[in-house]
Amino acid sequence: MRVLGIETSCDETGVAVYDTERGLLAHALYSQVELHAEYGGVVPELASRDHVRKLLPLVRQTLAEAGLGVEDLDGVAYTAGPGLVGALMVGAAAGRALAWALDLPAVGVHHMEGHLLAPMLEDPGLKPPFVALLVSGGHTQLVEVAAIGAYRLLGETLDDAAGEAFDKTAKLMGLPYPGGPELARLAESGRPGLFKFSRPMTDRPGLDFSFSGLKTQVLLAWQASDQSPQTRADIARGFEDAVVETLAVKCERALKQTGARTLVVAGGVGANVRLRERLQALVAGPVGGPSGPKLFAKGFGPEGPPTGRVCFPRPAFCTDNGAMIAFVGALRLRAGQHEAPAVTVTPRWDMASLPPL
């Protein structure tokens, strides 16, 4: 089954073709970063207009790279939510129109389910159950995945998402848009430990997150500093270390609570190198160093369980993309799920409400 996937939930236009027999055939992505840089953030109306301008040329480009014509498609998938309503409508309208014209089934895909299952695109051995950390500019969630379509929210952010905190912190220190990746690059030259910020909500039980207070701490430290280039890098490093350690602590708790041995990390912040290194160390070995307790010791014999694993999509598939939408769409279309002809989107959409496969 060959499925065209369309992603237009925010400020990136993504298109891909996925074949259930051969895998990902082609994908293309257009980013609106330069368009929104002047405003320091995404302007919804401009995002919608740019999706209109770029979507159909990207569809033609992707089909050509896959060596296919529209007549070779077996289905169409598009992001139906969550996201910016105008941007979502562009992709949904185009996807529904194409499916109607070709008499093909179409399905609206949950954007976060796309991120959650993105690592399975290139890792066919990855199967539920597992715990997923969905960490991006708009979401920070821990989800227990019993099966595809069977999701239980374990914890989420109470205010800023981790990626949003990265972007806002970068902006207050005068870094260019988009700030999150710029701050992460700056942190590479920062000296660890010179600025020590709190690890929010790690001193109490539970799996929820909060990053707004951390952002305030950074602002106060920045205002009280000499604001030199090296100090900026040191503060960036301190902030990144705090976010990474907070995410790691919550992931450890979620794995212990569920008994899962596999951690899946997806979303834009999942491309952060220091986060990847920290979570790989967490899952692969003892907690707290060689003498620390085994993370997965609960419920197993003295020798402990098999070593856990952490799975990431490739960095290009951490951010929004059409490949993840085509993949999830193919899974759901193959299971017989499809939408009525009406063009509908759901800007706010609880992933737990999705039907199982």
TrEMBL record:
Domain Gcp-like: 24-327
Protein's UniProt keywords contain Transmembrane helix: no
Binding site for Fe cation: H111, H115, D320
Cofactor binding remark: Binds 1 Fe(2+) ion per subunit.
Gene3D superfamilies in the cross-refs: 3.30.420.40
One GO molecular-function entry: iron ion binding
Protein name in UniProt: tRNA N6-adenosine threonylcarbamoyltransferase
Organism, as annotated: Arenimonas metalli CF5-1
